[in-house]
Structures are given as C-alpha cells and as structure tokens.
Amino acid sequence: MNKVVLLDLEQNPPTADLFRELLRHYPMVYLFNCQGRFEYALDDLTEFSSWLSSGQIVVLDVPKTAHKEYEYAVLVGQLLALLESDTRIEVISVIPSIDMLMQLLEAAGLFASLILLEKESPVAQTKSKYQLPSAKAFQDKPALQLVKKYCDALGKMAGKPATLEGLKNSLSNILQVMPDKAQQLVGMLINLKIVKRYDEQVSYRKKVLKQWLQFKLDDVLQEVPQDAVANAASAVVTEKEIPQHRSLQDLLQQQRDTTAQDLLKKSPQDFAKIDELQWEMVQQLGRLKSEKPKDIFELRDLLEKIYPQADIKRLLKELLEKGYIYWNGHEVLYSHELLLQ
Fold first, then answer.
1. pTM assigned to the model
2. Which has the closest alpha carbon to 316: 301, 336, 330?
3. What is the pLDDT of residues 111-158, one digit of tens each?
4. What does DSSP assign to residue 193?
5. Which of 25, 257, 326, 327 could tie 333 with a disulfide, CB 3.0–4.6 Å?
6. What is d(CA 165, CA 178) in angstroms, rounded to the nearest whole number?
C-alpha cells in the first residue's frame, strides 16, 4: 500500500526540517492551506523549489469561499484524481474542523488517518517544549539511567539505527541487555520523545537528544543519601521471600527494574511466574492478525472483555512501556513481536 502525507498548513507554518523528515519516510507530501498562503524561511526556498520540481511536494489548489465544506470537497476531488485507489493518506493538521475533511475522504472511499496536532499558545512557544524526567525519577528507575547511557552512545554514533529492529539490536549490544529489556527501552525512547517512529522506521529528535546529552546523570546520582542506598540494598529479597499475595502488577514492576545480570540468573519458570498474564495477552493480540484494534479505547474494551478480572489499564501501560505496542496520538501501532505471532 502506498502512503502519502496531506499536510494542512493553516495555523501550522512549515519548516525545511519538517519537510526533510516527512520525505525521509513518505514518497510524496501534499500541501494545502484554506487561507491561500503560508510563511516560509527565505534561506530554504531553493531546497523547497527542488522538491516542487521533482514532484516530491505537491501544492493543492483550494478555492477561497466562506464554506469550509466546499473547500474540502475540492481537495478530495483532486486527491481522487491524483492517487491510486489503495493509497493510504496521513492527514496532519492543527485545525479541529479537519474532521469534516476526514468524513469527506471516507465518503469518497479514500483510506485516511488523522494526526491532529495541538496548536501552541504564544506563551508556550517561548518556553521549553520538553522536560527531562525529575532527578528522583532517575534515582528510582534504573531503566531511565539506561536510556541516558544509550543517549550518550547515540551522541557519538556516526550512523544511528534507522529501523525498529536495528534500534533494538543496538540497545542490546551497547547496554548488554536481554531482548525483552531492549524492547522495553525502545518503548521508553519513543514515549520519552527521543525517538520518532514511522511504521518500521525510526528517526531522532535532535533537540531532545541534545538535552539528554547535556544532562549530567552522575551529579543526580550523587545526591542520593547513603542511608537510602543502604535501605535499598537491605530491601532486596529472594523469590521465596516474596509474599504470595503480591499482585501481578507488583511483579511486573519488579521485572521492569531488573538488570540484565538478574535476568540471566532467572529460569523460564521465573519469567512465566512474573509475566504469565501479560504474555498471554500478547499472544491473544497476535492471533488477531490484521484485525488488531487501531483505536486505544477499542483495544482496552477488547482486553476488558477477554480478561474481566484483570487491571487492564495497568497492563496496557506495561505493554506500552515494554514496547509491545506504541501510541502515536491517533492509533495503536504493534511491534514485530506481535505482528509475527
């Protein structure tokens, strides 16, 4: 199936970086603006002109009328003439009324999905768009420390992994972690906005990665009181000491914080005991093949129907953090492990 982007420029001025990123993952980008014009950096016009000349970027005509529905109808007509019938359209917009266009696309038999961006206020634009986790989070969650270590490695790489599988293998090799832990870290990199995913391809947010590179983890860890370290060490218990009434969620939390060395010491029976329900859920989703829910709420409802006694919200969070599923703000995306079930 061919994929293209339909980018709404109304109240959403584009940049050369945005176009470069989109064209890395999509063969064509269609632009439109119901206001009839948009602002663009003068220094980048030459590159923009080359994209227009090569046909990688196409500007669609939009008549100026008082009725949005008519403007959108003209857009749909152009797309019907330009696209193959099996083309998938990714619509990107900040305008709430874009739902009207989505309805018209569906009525015309075009397959489209929407990424509705949040328009920032002028005050918000002057502030930092991204915040690192708190110092306490780094102290309490060893997995965040692994993310920082991998970011430091990314900063030294000449060529970064470009696919999900390549990223997972890179994490395993650099951090010396097991595949399950690497899968979890992939999910964390995406959820922390360090990595962007486009289907099976990945790219990196340079500004966010720069913040992680500048962050001094050693300074934060040195702030941990010595008595807290001693208490944490004394709190380590063997499997026999874990109370039998301990919940599945507690065990999953324990697994999430387990190091690679600890994982190597565990037997298959240990994994089954810790992750039995979650793994069964992964297998159930795998059996659905192409019928897996794309909507996060449909997925929640389906799992609640299959497992009425389970804490589905908590388990969904675990699936997200371990990287079995991803949420791009519009639809659920499934990892290789689920697609190949």
1. 0.40
2. 301
3. 998 888 766 544 444 444 678 888 888 888 888 889 999 999 999 988
4. T
5. 326
6. 14
